[in-house]
Amino acid sequence: MSLGFLFAMSLPALVAALFVLAVVERFARGKKKGTPMSTAGIGELGATFEAGKREEIEFRKEERLLRDDEGDGAPPRSRVDLDGGRAVLNVPAQRQPS
Hints:
The protein is mostly helical. The chain contains 4 helices and 2 strands, in the order ααααββ. It has helices spanning 3-8, 11-29, 37-49, 53-65; strands at 78-81, 86-89. It has a two-stranded antiparallel ribbon. Strand 1 and strand 2 form a beta hairpin. Helix 2 (11-29) runs antiparallel to helix 3 (37-49). The protein is elongated, with a radius of gyration of 24 Å. It starts with a helix and ends in a 9-residue tail after the last strand. The mean pLDDT is 77.
């Protein structure tokens, strides 16, 4: 086996390839939205060596899929109507100390 082949199959070669991909992608993508492939690759590489990173990646993926409805959680105290240009704020009354 040649030395070049061993380097190409090593971890430094992977990191160098991700760096080159990030540079090329930066200029090729412009201002497009979404996660760049190099960022996803670097995250996966970090998850290989860092114990809690895999759970963090999975949590972020689940969080993007879940919806946050207005009716969930605490009772509504305010409403904002963007189309009508109106906001209604209900401030609870202050309790007097006894």
